[in-house]
Specification:
heterodimer; A: 247 residues; 9 helices; 7 strands; globular; B: 356 residues; Rossmann fold; 2 domains; 15 strands; 19% strand; 2-oxoglutarate oxidoreductase (chain A); 2-oxoacid:Fd_oxidoreductase (chain A); TPP_enzyme_TPP-bd (chain A); oxidoreductase (chain A)
Chain lengths: 247, 356
């Protein structure tokens, strides 16, 4: 009987440091599968963010650079501009990308940098310990919003994929989730497509992934999946927001 | 090669190309925007990469990315912009990456002004960003030296895998002088396969390379700091540059100055000599590593009554001069700021007061 399931070559054997029930592991695997299927591992450079995924280079087996908080798209720009033959992707969380790194992501997208951005949206700061993110839902508790996010004081959650879709420069912008097997399969397709656009030198590509953070949400992994589906998905609607073909 | 008349900022841009640097990222700021304007035209002609970033913060990381990928890269800015790039400078130094940063200093603090200043000496030599790191800092005194130091900067950056700063000022950036571009200052880029993220397919070893500055283990972080420290000690041994002017005879006073200020001091020393007063000048060309022993030796000479540091600042390099002279001679200071530059007459007046 043949082998039907194996670890992607682009994933290392290391055990991850992620909390039980965290979805980073799923997305890492999807990125690694896409890299394997496109045969680009030896020409790929990842940019690790500041956040829980700062150690992504321990798990994804290609060249990596570590950026400061929010600066990954600028760093990716530097690499891609001087080495257009390399495949460059960033892997960023919502504090990193949607708060401190808002300037860098918007301008990289607007220049149409031929890079791929994987954006993990779990509506909270993970590594620093559950503080409010720009993506935190109204009423959602955080260590810096103990009574829940007050939209009158801090505004409504930023919908990055929607925002990015307003950029006129052609690009691929999609929002996916990894809360159910069907969603994981669709997310995989989107991530692969995002890399394919880069391989073909077509456009900037951006995949937002609705994820969970059981530890900082104070829920079990199962409850987290349920809460994300019921609370996040109605506000963060899934689907393609922009494709280069429609430009 | 024949000399050409060029503005300092444009000459710095051309020097980078002549040194084999074909990658430049920058954000406009007075008084150095001509570097970006010049290179936006020149780099495409030679097949290079020019990109205007959205901010100095972002440009710092474009430089970090390009350098981490193993390519020669430069940016230029001026004081407030260097403050914003200082975040990246700390990371680049921590990650042992070579890169060239040019600071055409303007008056500060805050928005300050757009005229020449030397107010960024502390920022350039003592850090600027967070953590224990140093830049190797070259301080040209005119357009020719700005060209030569810009070219040397790439070699030094790669020798130490450390960011190198060329620190001029608005005067050097804006004035025109005849220059030549010495071919012999161009070096071949070092092989970066051992550490750069240049793609595994281009390397013999198929182990991924990692450019990083995070060391969660205290012993590992301590080791990285020791590695950095060892490089700074090597710089002190091998790459100190300085000039002594009129220092062969029995001078009564030693003037410490650098960059544009040293040009004025040189004139003052010549005028004093015509009156029969001997003054010497100590001019560091590397602000870090500082020529520690050289300024000490020049200061302790028997004929020398005192040392004065003359700067376009409120007193920054003077602290290094005091540190190195170790109380063996009095160390005085005179400075003007904001684009005001001490005149030769003023310097002569101060020297005469000091030596009685």
């Amino acid at each position: 009987m043949g082998k039907t399931f194996s670890k992607p070559e682009a994933l290392t054997d290391n055990h991850t440091h992620y909390c039980p029930g965290c979805t980073h592991g799923i997305v890492h695997r999807l990125v690694a599968e896409a890299i394997d299927e496109l045969g680009i591992r030896e020409n790929t450079v990842g940019i690790a963010p500041v956040g829980c995924a700062v150690l992504a280079y321990n798990y994804i087996d290609c060249d990596f650079q570590e950026a400061a908080h929010g600066r990954a798209p600028a760093m990716a720009t530097g690499i891609k501009r001087v080495r257009p033959d390399l495949m460059v992707f960033t892997y960023q969380g919502d504090g990193d990308l949607a708060s401190i790194g808002m300037g860098e992501i918007i301008h990289a997208a607007n220049r149409g940098e031929k890079i791929t951005v994987i954006f993990i949206n779990n509506a909270i700061y993970g590594m620093t310990g559950g503080q409010m993110a720009p993506t935190t839902m109204p009423g959602q508790r955080a260590t810096t919003a103990p009574a829940g996010r007050d939209a009158a004081q801090t505004g409504m959650p930023i919908r990055m994929a929607n925002l990015m879709s307003e950029i006129v420069t052609p690009g691929y912008v999609t929002r996916q989730a990894v809360l159910k097997p069907q969603m994981v399969n669709k997310c995989k397709k989107a991530i692969k497509k995002a890399f394919e656009y880069q391989v073909a030198n077509t456009c900037f590509s951006f995949v937002e992934v609705i994820s969970t953070c059981p530890t900082n949400w104070g829920m079990t992994p199962i409850d987290s999946l349920k809460w994300a589906e019921e609370t996040l998905l109605p506000y963060y609607e899934l689907g393609d927001y922009k494709t280069p073909e429609e430009a | 090669m024949a000399k050409v008349l060029m503005k300092g900022n444009e000459a710095i841009g051309e020097a980078a190309i002549r040194a084999g640097c074909l990658n430049y990222f920058a954000y406009p700021i007075t008084p150095q925007s001509e570097v970006a304007e010049y290179l936006s035209k020149r780099l495409p002609e030679v097949g290079g990469t020019f990109l205007q970033g959205e901010s100095e913060v972002a440009v710092g990381y474009m430089i970090f990315g390009a350098s981490g990928a193993g390519e020669r890269v430069m940016t230029t800015s001026s004081s407030p912009g260097i403050s914003l790039m200082s975040e990246a400078l700390s990371y680049i130094a921590a990650a042992h990456c070579p890169a060239v940063f040019v600071n055409i200093v303007r008056g500060g603090p805050g928005l300050g002004g757009i005229l020449p200043s030397q107010g960024d000496y502390f920022q350039a030599t003592k850090g600027g960003g967070h953590g224990d790191y140093h830049l190797l800092v070259l301080a040209p005194d005119g357009v020719q030296e700005a060209v030569e130091m810009t070219m040397q900067a790439f070699t030094l950056a790669e020798k130490y895998r450390n960011p190198v700063m060329v620190m001029g000022d608005g005067m050097i950036g804006q004035m025109m002088e005849p220059v030549e571009f010495p071919d012999d200052l161009k070096t071949e880029p070092t092989n970066k396969d051992a550490w750069a993220t240049n793609g595994m397919s281009t390397r013999k070893s198929k182990t991924p390379n990692l450019v990083k500055s995070l060391f969660l283990d205290s012993a590992e972080l301590n080791r990285n700091n020791l590695d950095l420290k060892a490089k700074y000690e090597q710089m002190k041994k091998e790459d100190v540059q300085y000039e002594l002017y009129n220092a062969d005879g029995d001078y009564q006073i030693l003037i410490a100055s650098y960059g544009t200020m040293s040009r004025v001091c040189r004139t003052a020393i010549d005028m004093l000599k015509a009156e029969g007063i001997e003054a010497a000048m100590f001019r560091p060309k590397t602000l870090f590593p500082f020529p520690e022993k050289q300024v000490y030796d020049a200061a302790v000479k028997d004929s020398c009554k005192c040392v004065i540091s003359i700067e376009m600042s409120m007193g920054q390099m003077v602290e290094d001069v005091q540190r190195c002279v170790m109380g063996k001679k009095p160390v005085e200071f005179y400075g003007e700021c904001g684009g005001e530059i001490p005149s030769p007459e003023k310097i002569i007046e101060i020297v005469k007061e000091l030596i009685g």
